[in-house]
Amino acid sequence: MRDGELSAHPDRMRWNAKYEAAGQPEFMPHPLVEWALSEELPDGPVLDLACGPSGSALRFAAEGRAVTAVDVSEVALRLLRHEARRRGLSGRIAIVQADLATWRPSVGDEYAVVLCAGFWDVRVFGPAIEAVRPGGLVLWEAFTGEARRRRPSLPAEWCLGEDEPASLLPERFSTVLQQDLSDQGKRRFAARSA
Ligand SMILES: C[S@@+](CC[C@H](N)C(=O)[O-])C[C@H]1O[C@@H](n2cnc3c(N)ncnc32)[C@H](O)[C@@H]1O
């Protein structure tokens, strides 16, 4: 259940309205997920941040991974919960309604994959990558300055800086994929922990 602070949260209200208007999602996994599944991965669970009605969470769960899926929108999470139940995957997906500005992985939690697609907040990145286990991957996709040039109303703090997120990585990480999708004003990124 959401706490009192979330009830008036602007992101929650905005995204609930979007998901209500959009109807039934297609539950497509993010392309980074298919890429990651073709790579070597350590054992362990997956963390999907700003998950939405996540085809990615479902895909990892279908591969036998335990998934923690976090989002502020209970509409998105309800869609995910129903689809997970329909596919017999409920037992593998822990659904968490929370504001990523304050939610943090529990101390000692380690994930084989931390995924975040369609969301950027520099304050979320550090704690997220701290939770990647040795050999694991962080997968991220977010808007760049290019998106902001096209849509000046887009807040700067929602967009990756020139060299981000690579420039924010601690030494134990190596960038293994970086692709600027200029037609979408987004950067797709993956890094592996030593
Ligand atoms: C563009 S959608 C991306 C959804 C999914 N990751 C995908 O790739 O399809 C952005 C998601 O971020 C979530 N979100 C926005 N602000 C948030 C916040 N402060 N805390 C947690 N989730 C948030 C929204 O509810 C929405 O599901």
Structure description:
It is built from seven helices and seven strands, in the order H-H-H-E-H-E-H-E-E-H-E-H-E-E. It has a single domain, classed as Rossmann fold (3-Layer(aba) Sandwich), CATH 3.40.50.150. It has 194 residues and is an alpha/beta fold. The termini are far apart. S-adenosylmethionine binds next to helix 2.
CATH superfamily: Vaccinia Virus protein VP39
Ligand types? S-adenosylmethionine
How many domain units? 1
Mean pLDDT: 96
Blueprint (SSEs and pairs):
Elements (H helix, E strand, L loop, with lengths): L3 H4 L2 H13 L8 H7 L8 E4 L5 H8 L4 E5 L2 H13 L6 E5 L13 E7 L4 H9 L1 E12 L1 H6 L22 E9 L4 E8 L1
Parallel strand pairs: 1-2, 1-4, 2-3, 4-5
Antiparallel strand pairs: 5-7, 6-7
S-adenosylmethionine binds next to helix 2.
Question: What descriptive keywords fit this protein?
Answer:
31% helix, 7 helices, Rossmann fold
In short:
The protein is α/β, with parallel strands linked by helices. It is built from seven helices and seven strands; from the N terminus they run αααβαβαββαβαββ.
